[in-house]
Amino acid sequence: MSRTVRRSRLLFAVLMTALVLAGCGGDGGGNGGHEAGHGEESGAGHGDHGSEDSAPAFEEDAATTVVRVTLQDYAFVGLPATVKGPNVLFEATVKGSNEHELAVHDAAGETVGLLVPFKEGKTKKLAVALQPGTYTIVCLVEEGAKPHAELGMKTELQVE
Ligand SMILES: [Cu+2]
């Protein structure tokens, strides 16, 4: 008799463990929802930094240099160290599931060109007239408390 009781207690414990594990799976789904909510927050935070792509500074066929760049976690891939100005045409694509932006800052830190955050699946063009000097290409989309620039999306660009 007592053996049978023990066995059913063991079975009960196994069932409870299975239920707890199933419960954990549910929590995981909850976290996914939280991340999605966070993405919206960082998108909204971009309002103060500019909400529209810069108007093109020249017609595409007047470009001095065309720069094809991939925006990904967390780097600008394909940017040369030096480009010939003044008419620099960036053709930017995103790789991966995150959204990214491309901002061109001059030596004083002013934004002189901007492609607002966008996602994988399209190519956006930024035609910006740059005088000779040092510029910084950055992405200020936030991941947690840090902008992507701090995670690696920050590159110097010399224009000659
Ligand atoms: Cu980014």
Describe this structure in words.
It is a single chain. The protein is an alpha+beta fold and 160 residues long. It folds into two domains: 45 residues; 107 residues, Cupredoxins -  blue copper proteins (Immunoglobulin-like), CATH 2.60.40. Helices cover 29% and strands 36% of the residues. It is built from two helices and eleven strands. The strands form three sheets. It has a five-stranded mixed sheet with strand order 3-11-8-5-6.
Label the CATH architecture of the largest domain. Sandwich
Q: Structural class of the secondary elements?
A: alpha+beta
Low-confidence stretches: 10-48
Per CATH, the class of the largest domain reads Mainly Beta
Biggest β-sheet strands, sense, barrel: 5 strands, mixed
Total E-strand runs: 11
Query: How far apart lie the N and C ends?
Result: 91 Å
CATH homology-level superfamily of the largest domain = Cupredoxins -  blue copper proteins
Give the SSE string: HEEEEEEEEEEHE
What percent of residues are in strands? 35-45%
Summed up, the helix count is: 2
CATH topology of the largest domain: Immunoglobulin-like
The chain-level mean pLDDT equals 81
Give a short synopsis of this structure.
The protein is α+β, with helices and mostly antiparallel strands and 160 residues long.
Q: What key attributes describe this structure?
A:
five-stranded mixed β-sheet; 2 domains; alpha+beta; Immunoglobulin-like; binds copper (II) ion; four-stranded mixed β-sheet
